[in-house]
Specification:
The chain is of the alpha+beta class. Helix content is about 25%, strand content about 35%. The termini are far apart.
Length: about 500
């Protein structure tokens, strides 16, 4: 077991605890950052050249990517030896507006390290540093590890260098802890007393699913781009989200229109009376795996829309020489979930009147027998930045990565007009009016004309009531029943002279 930087785990834990006690709501979804800065022998010109922008770069990047309230650890690393532990913690704090200044201040006194009891400059172990950051600083929990290195492992090119390179390679590509790995090759000419260099490498390693989401959010918000304008080289993953589909044209689907939303979701806007079962869509297929070219792959696709899972017919099942950022046309025929679209008189449609009823789903594009190769332009850039160095193994795609899947979120949005809702509203108003009229008619008193012993009388009564009728002597001789349809005489006493009318 290698010696780890002392107290780094405790420093991060203390910072995290302080953050939790002070501002739980502010950082509840934040992730910690670990900045690993190499200070071994090959890094000598980055420290000794008075024009070097190495330390300001670390501070500027930290100031841009770290959000207020997040835990930050800064550590210097080379190779751990007895009496010289590595990595070595320099600073641990809760980020604020002054994160860049704190990082720059902590780096001010840092210089290249030497082996214990010797004038020889220290060697480097990249894998040791990253492993320590994951297991000790982050404690196996989600976060982002930033690594600043000249991409060399040993100033003396000892026999253990190749083995350490392989361990670093395996940690990145084969380890489950790192979910996303990016590399930023940067031009930074420096000249020192012993060595000179043309470039620097900055790695970003997302640890865990939350670390992956946090790194994606930083890239989407262009917070890294504020400091590093070069596009990142993707090291991992190479088996998902490797291509992007962008719709160019839709045919044979009246009432259907496709567009891509700002969040990357493909929207199919459908008229409620669209019943065409299929749509032919012309796509732009783009390789998103800079700096790799998809030299060849076999394509297949499926759609899951509105609970339906159907294959998508592709115009071509092969792709070749697909370079990063250069789209290739791809035709497809897919079935729309018309059977799942509610009728315009349904409760779902009426509820969505004036807006859209949404059927979520995905389009899944699978690449089998996938063969990747590093683009020639990237090889040339690496050769210019690191002259004389072999291309690091970390940029060689693992042989096991022979398939990938790209998932495109889709929303089928059915737009219902206000007509049916207005029609139902009108009908409801008519029913209410009729009910009101009936209630008024029922409540309105009715006039009844009677003749009692040759005497004309007028009586008023509401429908549903029964009233007694008396003769001149005050005796009840009958009853008057009133309904919506008229009047009736009930319980007429024998011999009584009572009739309706005059």
């Amino acid at each position: 077991m290698r010696t780890l930087f002392p107290s780094l785990g405790r420093m991060l834990a203390a910072a995290a605890l302080a953050m939790f006690m002070a501002a739980v709501p502010a950082w509840a979804f934040a992730v910690p950052h670990v900045f690993l800065v190499q200070n071994s022998g090959w890094m000598e010109p980055f420290y000794s050249d008075p024009q070097s922008q190495f330390k300001p770069l670390v501070g500027a990047l930290a100031g841009s990517v770290v959000q207020p309230g997040e835990a930050v650890v800064l550590a210097a690393f080379n190779q751990s030896l007895p009496g010289a532990p590595s990595p070595r913690a320099l600073l641990s704090f809760k980020a604020g507006q002054d994160s860049a200044q704190k990082i720059t201040q902590a780096l001010r006194g840092l210089d290249t390290a030497r082996k214990p009891g010797s004038a020889a400059l220290a060697d480097t172990d990249l894998g040791e540093a990253v492993q320590a950051a994951i297991t000790q600083a982050l404690g196996g929990k989600p976060g982002i590890v930033w690594l600043f290195t000249n991409n060399r492992n040993s100033p003396n090119n000892d026999q253990a260098t190749a083995e350490r390179n392989r361990e670093f390679y395996q940690l990145i590509h084969g380890g489950a802890a790192i979910t996303k790995a990016l590399a930023f090759p940067l031009r930074m000419p420096v000249k020192g007393e012993h060595y000179s260099a043309n470039g620097l490498m900055v790695y970003a390693f997302a640890v865990g699913a939350e670390g992956n989401r946090a790194l994606d959010a930083l890239l989407a918000a262009r917070r890294v781009e504020r400091v590093i304008t070069e596009p990142p080289a993707r090291l991992k993953p190479l088996d998902r989200d490797t291509v992007r589909l962008a719709p160019r044209k839709v045919e044979n689907a009246p009432g259907v229109r496709f567009a891509t939303a700002p969040n990357g979701v493909l929207r199919a806007d459908v008229a409620p009376d669209a019943r065409q079962p299929t749509a032919r869509i012309e796509w732009n297929l783009e390789n998103t795996m800079y700096p790799y070219t998809i030299s060849s792959a076999t394509l297949s696709a499926r759609s899951t829309l509105g609970g339906e899972n159907r294959p998508i017919s592709l115009a071509s099942s092969k792709v070749s020489a697909l370079a990063p950022g250069k789209p290739a046309p791809l035709g497809s025929t897919m079935t729309l979930p018309v059977a799942q679209i509610p009728d315009k008189w349904s409760a779902q449609a009426l509820k969505s009147a004036g807006s859209a009823y949404v059927l979520p789903g995905t389009i899944q594009l699978h690449l089998a027998d996938q063969k990747l190769e590093l683009s020639q332009a990237f090889r040339q850039r690496m050769a210019a930045l690191f002259p004389g160095d072999p291309l690091p193994d970390i940029f060689i795609p693992p042989a096991r990565v022979q398939a990938s899947t790209a998932v495109l979120p889709v929303e089928v949005r059915v737009h219902y007009g206000m007509g049916p809702l207005l029609a139902l509203g009108g009908a409801a108003l008519a029913l209410l009016g009729a009910a009101g009229a009936a209630a008024y008619a029922y409540a309105r008193p009715r006039v009844a004309h009677l003749t009692v012993e040759d005497e004309l009388r007028t009586m008023r009564a509401r429908p549903g009531t029964t009233q007694p009728i008396y003769d001149k002597a005050g005796q009840q001789v009958a009853q008057l029943k009133t309904t919506l349809f008229g009047h009736q005489l009930l319980d007429l006493r024998e011999g009584a002279q009572v009739r309706l009318g005059r």
